[in-house]
Amino acid sequence: WYQRRVREAVVSTQSTGEMINITLWEGRSDILHCFSVEEITPDGKMFPSVLMLTATHLYNIRRASQREGMGFIRYRFAFSAIARITAKKKHPDVITFKFIKENQELLAYRFLIPDSKTVTSQITNLIPPEL
Length: 131
Prior knowledge:
Oligomer: single chain
Structural class: alpha+beta
Distance between the termini: 56 Å
Helix content: 10-25%
């Protein structure tokens, strides 16, 4: 019973999006940048992920632990939905992205990003200026 429950929990955390081949996506012409990161969940767990940037959107793809080179699209946000990008002085590689949804709800996602300054500057350059 316990093993089945754990297996169901693992499947439910990974099956929130479409499964894709990360290697194929990295080669797509609309993907401008790809960064290997660790997604930090609200309860502190870390999952290997990839942030992919197009001209208009940010994708978070969580790597599938059972299948090499595959991952699940966790979410996709337009750059115009980014409300804030923050980092703490003591932990500059832990970056928090805050997004505004249509209903004005604020969503926050945290990542451990090696070379975070490069990644955040690439994202900042793609965010459209406010009118």
